[in-house]
């Protein structure tokens, strides 16, 4: 597994080193970062990494973080996504200094573009996108300028204004920066700044029909907000010279861009475009389907913000791309849930046990610790009676050696209750075991001295009469392979068909009647669970957040 280090043990990451140097040199009085999502989908765990990094740095160094919606593409963006992004950032435990929208800067950005035109550093090009691509050359051959690059400042100003005023249809003209068609960096070969899109924008409506490109809007927005450290992922390294060129030519606040490795997780995909396909083609039920790698799905599944922040911290800030193991994420949530989850007993696949020496109709209320890991946790009452359920798999008629559960003539302890002995096995016509008759040892009540009795196993159980039936949903990896995006063919060919298992009726101890959404539970010997939002008056639904142990590590070793 990935090396695990706690925050206080680790050395500074390279961005912290830069910030500390900048502050020491008096370059800035305080730092300003931003988280700049495009509102075209729900945030995933990769975004959580970026959120924790940007907000975490500002918290550590006493700066501020803006939430800026990078909403410069009217076609793919939506207010639904804006709302979900805000909810996710807050759930993770962060509060932005300002909620901002790149679209609020459209007028200012337009002004910047006019300035570049006036400086002879931008021109309107009438070429088609195919022509522009062709003229761009290749990384080894220089590109060529066309005749439009020679347009006068006056003509460019007029045409750009006409573009804004809606005189031209989509695709007929673009505004380009005039930089260097022979640059070895393709991004500097007269990059596009504006394109025409007659489309309604989720915030500016029909006010605009030209929209700035990422490379023009992003750095300028950083500068407008006086962002000191603009952090993005490695694929933007080649964009950095352009980022700097724009800021220098416009003579605006000098924001700086720094790049770190994006977070990749195995057995899933991590791009909004792909996640959207999974939702739209109904491979999952929704963006927050608990099998999705979105923040909202992790929340619904029972992950805690603490566990995700811990995970992001342990992953660290790398300068080279790698794939992080899903099991590290699961390690983090287990660590947290072990401390906070209330222990409960739920039988998934019941086998009836009758305690023949326990009086009929009587109920004894036993007490059990809510969480042995937490000294402040309380206790709950657990009813014990003549008729109980245990798991089918916890009984075997002809057990192999080292089967420490229930078998004919054998003893076993029932958690927080008594030691029982299997006296008789009842079967149906087909020979299937339908019931076992046991006796209990009255002086073996949990907490008493039972040194005289040798019992190896402890089972979870419920009392039949008081049990409540609930639905349980168990989740597994969404994909069968570690990196579905790099496999041959479509990534969806590698979806794990067994990623969801529904147990329609499980039997829960009555304390779960009052289960609440914000509570976390450990179903003894089963895993960690939480209440799902599909819960209704008639039916409680529980999600398995994570198993108690890493079952996949074992699977992988076998394979
Ligand atoms: P996707 O390709 O999944 O749609 P994106 O980069 O287009 O992601 P944005 O909304 O533009 O998504 O991203 C907002 C911020 O989150 C950016 O600063 C981006 O660099 C960062 N980010 C996105 N994905 C990851 C990731 N996997 N790891 C770390 N940071 C990420
Ligand atoms: Mg993006």
UniProtKB/TrEMBL annotation:
One of its GO terms (molecular function) is ATP binding. Residues 31-338 form the Glutamyl/glutaminyl-tRNA synthetase class Ib catalytic domain. The keyword Membrane does not apply. The keyword Aminoacyl-tRNA synthetase applies. Its EC number is 6.1.1.18. A motif ('KMSKS' region) lies at residues 269-273. It catalyses: tRNA(Gln) + L-glutamine + ATP = L-glutaminyl-tRNA(Gln) + AMP + diphosphate. L-glutamine binds at residues 70, 214. It comes from the Bacteria. One of its GO terms (biological process) is glutamyl-tRNA aminoacylation. Belongs to the class-I aminoacyl-tRNA synthetase family. This is Glutamine--tRNA ligase.
């Amino acid at each position: 597994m990935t090396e695990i280090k706690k925050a206080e043990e680790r050395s500074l990451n390279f961005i912290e080193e830069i910030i500390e140097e900048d502050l020491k040199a008096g370059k800035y009085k305080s730092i300003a970062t931003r988280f700049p999502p495009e509102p075209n989908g729900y945030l995933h765990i990769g975004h959580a990494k970026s959120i924790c990094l940007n907000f975490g740095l500002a918290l550590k160094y006493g700066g501020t973080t803006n939430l800026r919606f990078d909403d410069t593409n009217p076609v793919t963006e939506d207010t639904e996504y804006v709302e979900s992004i805000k909810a996710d950032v807050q759930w993770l435990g962060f509060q932005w200094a300002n909620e901002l929208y790149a679209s609020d800067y459209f007028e200012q950005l337009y002004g910047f573009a006019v300035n570049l035109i006036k400086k002879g550093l931008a021109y309107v090009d009438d070429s088609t996108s195919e022509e522009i691509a062709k003229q761009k050359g290749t990384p080894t051959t220089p590109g060529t300028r066309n005749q439009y690059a020679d347009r006068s400042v006056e003509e460019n100003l007029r045409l750009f204004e006409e573009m804004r005023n809606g005189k031209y249809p989509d695709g007929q003209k673009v505004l380009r920066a005039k930089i260097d068609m022979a640059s070895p960096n393709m991004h500097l070969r007269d990059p596009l700044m504006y394109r025409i899109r007659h489309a309604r924008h989720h915030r500016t409506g029909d006010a605009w029909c030209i929209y700035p490109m990422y490379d023009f809007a992003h750095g300028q927005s950083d500068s407008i907000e006086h962002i000191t450290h603009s952090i993005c992922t490695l694929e933007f390294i080649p964009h950095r010279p352009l980022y700097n060129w724009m800021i220098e030519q416009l003579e605006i606040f000098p924001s700086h861009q720094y790049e770190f490795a994006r977070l990749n997780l195995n057995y899933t995909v991590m791009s909004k475009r792909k996640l959207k396909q999974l939702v739209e083609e109904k491979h999952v039920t929704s963006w927050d389907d608990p099998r999705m790698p979105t923040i909202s799905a992790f929340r619904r599944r029972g992950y805690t913000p603490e566990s995700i922040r811990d995970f992001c911290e342990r992953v660290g800030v790398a300068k080279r791309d790698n794939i992080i193991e899903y099991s590290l994420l699961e390690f983090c949530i287990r660590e947290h849930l072990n401390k906070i989850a209330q222990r409960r007993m739920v039988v998934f696949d019941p086998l009836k046990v009758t305690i023949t020496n326990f009086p009929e109709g009587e109920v004894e209320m036993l007490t059990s610790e809510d969480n042995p890991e937490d000294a402040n946790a309380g206790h709950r009452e657990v009813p014990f009676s003549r008729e109980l359920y245990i798991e089918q798999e916890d009984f075997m008629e002809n057990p192999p050696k080292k089967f420490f559960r229930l078998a004919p003539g054998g003893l076993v302890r029932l958690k927080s209750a008594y030691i029982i002995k299997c006296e008789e096995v009842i079967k149906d016509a087909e020979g299937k075991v339908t019931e076992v008759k046991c006796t209990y040892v009255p002086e073996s009540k949990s907490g008493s001295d039972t040194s005289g009795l040798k019992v190896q196993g402890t089972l979870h159980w419920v009392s039949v009469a008081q049990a409540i039936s609930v639905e349980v949903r168990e989740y597994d990896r969404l994909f069968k392979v570690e990196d579905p995006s790099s496999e041959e063919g479509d990534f969806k060919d590698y979806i794990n068909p067994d990623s969801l298992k529904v147990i329609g009726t499980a039997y829960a101890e009555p304390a779960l009647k009052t289960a609440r959404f914000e509570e976390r539970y450990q179903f003894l010997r089963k895993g960690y669970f939480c209440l799902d939002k599909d819960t209704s008056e008639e039916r409680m639904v529980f999600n398995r957040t994570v198993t108690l142990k890493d079952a996949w590590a074992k699977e992988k070793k076998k394979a």
